[in-house]
């Protein structure tokens, strides 16, 4: 299987998509319809998250493995240290390797139940992402990525510490990064510039989610950890009672933000799909970065 870094550095703008493991049979059917809709568009890779607090670890392993074996897609697995001993982590990493998965996004993860609670490591586990990255790289031939935070990591006290911790993850073996979701292009660019100024030049991919309903706008702000930019809210809020117009405006905004990212030298954009394909398909087709059927 190709690595994420190989797939995103092909000389043309690319996209990737993020899924979460289904909770039931209906959710699994929806997810696989989405995967089959996106597969012909040739995303650079697709990823499968853990549930809150690492609660869906087994489903994540199964879903990522099935993507790797049953589709033509390049699969990337998420891995967190939440409630996991070293033995647990070795077992998950071994399961990924056995399924032919060689791309892993290593994230320390949020505390279960309350993402804002104090982090408490497993008594026999790890405390920092850099330790997790080092472990992944030591246990197999993995291409490993990490998270980046345009609005700073919630536990970073300032930009200098945020940059320092990020570089530590890269020194441990990370080859690329995907950002926490954001909607403010300038926040991303400031983060990228300060990391580059510190001598670190790994690819950093924006994590974006098309806003198509007022509910998805609320969810997006929660995921990002910051309110939507005023200019974005000013365009969307007056359309709250017109579903079609709201969706069209949300797609327009995502296309505009994506194009800004590509204009600024980004090679790949990672779209949070919420396991549904229409909005992501609309965005990448509008941008002209989706493969044409049969190519």
Helices, strands, pairings?
Elements: H1 4-8, E1 14-19, H2 25-38, E2 46-48, H3 57-70, E3 75-80, H4 86-98, E4 103-107, H5 129-139, E5 143-148, H6 159-171, E6 176-181, H7 185-197, E7 204-208, H8 214-224, H9 230-236, H10 243-263, E8 268-272, H11 278-287
Parallel strand pairs: 1-2, 1-8, 2-3, 3-4, 4-5, 5-6, 6-7, 7-8
Short structural summary:
The protein has helices at residues 4-8, 25-38, 57-70, 86-98, 129-139, 159-171, 185-197, 214-224, 230-236, 243-263, 278-287, and strands at 14-19, 46-48, 75-80, 103-107, 143-148, 176-181, 204-208, 268-272. By secondary structure, it is of the alpha/beta class. Helix 4 (86-98) links the parallel strand 3 and strand 4 (103-107).
Written account of the structure:
By secondary structure, the chain is of the alpha/beta class. Helix content is 45%, strand content 14%. It starts with a helix and ends in an 8-residue tail after the last helix. β2 (46-48), α3 and β3 form a beta-alpha-beta unit. It has helices spanning 4-8, 25-38, 57-70, 86-98, 129-139, 159-171, 185-197, 214-224, 230-236, 243-263, 278-287, and strands at 14-19, 46-48, 75-80, 103-107, 143-148, 176-181, 204-208, 268-272.
């Amino acid at each position: 299987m190709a690595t994420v870094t190989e797939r995103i550095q092909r000389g043309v703008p690319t996209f990737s998509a993020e899924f979460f493991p289904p909770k039931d049979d209906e959710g699994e059917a929806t997810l696989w319809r989405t995967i089959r809709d996106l597969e012909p568009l040739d995303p650079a890779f697709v990823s499968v998250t853990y549930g809150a607090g690492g609660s869906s670890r087994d489903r994540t392993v199964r879903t990522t493995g099935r993507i790797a074996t049953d589709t033509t897609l390049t699969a990337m697995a998420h891995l967190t240290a939440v409630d996991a001993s070293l033995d647990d982590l070795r077992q998950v990493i071994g399961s990924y390797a056995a399924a032919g998965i060689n791309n892993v996004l290593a994230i320390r993860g949020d505390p279960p139940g309350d993402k804002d609670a104090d982090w408490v490591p497993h008594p026999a586990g790890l405390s920092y992402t850099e330790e997790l990255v080092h472990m992944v790289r030591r246990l197999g031939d993995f291409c490993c990525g990490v998270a980046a935070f345009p609005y700073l990591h919630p536990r970073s006290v300032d930009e200098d510490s945020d940059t320092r911790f990020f570089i530590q993850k890269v020194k441990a073996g990370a080859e690329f990064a995907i950002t926490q979701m954001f909607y403010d292009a300038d926040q991303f660019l400031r983060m990228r510039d300060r990391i580059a100024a510190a001598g670190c030049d790994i690819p950093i991919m924006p994590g974006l989610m098309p806003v198509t309903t007022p509910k998805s706008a609320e969810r997006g702000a929660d995921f990002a950890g910051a309110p939507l930019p005023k200019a974005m809210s000013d365009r969307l809020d007056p359309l709250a009672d017109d579903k079609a117009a709201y969706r069209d405006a949300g797609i327009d905004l995502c296309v505009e933000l994506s194009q800004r990212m590509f204009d600024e030298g980004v090679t790949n954009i990672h779209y949070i799909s919420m396991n549904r394909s229409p909005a992501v398909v609309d965005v990448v087709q509008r941008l002209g970065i989706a493969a044409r059927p049969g190519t």
